[in-house]
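re: that chain from earlier
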Amino acid sequence: MTTMPLDDEREARPQVGALPFRREPDGSYSVLLVTSRESRRWVIPKGWPMKGRKPFEAAAREAYEEAGVLGQIGKRPLGFYLYQKRLKNRDAVLCQVKVFPLEVRKHRKSWPEQHEREQRWFTPAEAAEAVTEPGLAAIIRAALKKDGRAKS
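^ sequence. v structure.
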């Protein structure tokens, strides 16, 4: 397996991701995470940029394909994080994921990857603990503050 150093952002391949969230009746927020197909770790829906779609539109599409959620996607990213993606040939590449907020309005009964992943709603604190990427955990903590306000 070949890996690239994490400190070299210039070599990172761009990806887009959605941070699906919903407001609960008590005014707090919940975050939806899905499992990755290979390692089964908790992640946000994400993928490669899509030709003909703006980054936030591609992030919303990934949220539908991987989690079956539709809603209001933010046009500005909350931030980005880096992670090592293992490719089918077993090589690893460094990816930089721009994360867009997605306020979930609808959860479909069926969607493209529903049998390939698990999904679960977490409190923001639980979601930040469940993900393995420190940069993603920081984005979750910053985006959905403990006082219940969402940043968009």
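The two ends are 38 Å apart (CA to CA).
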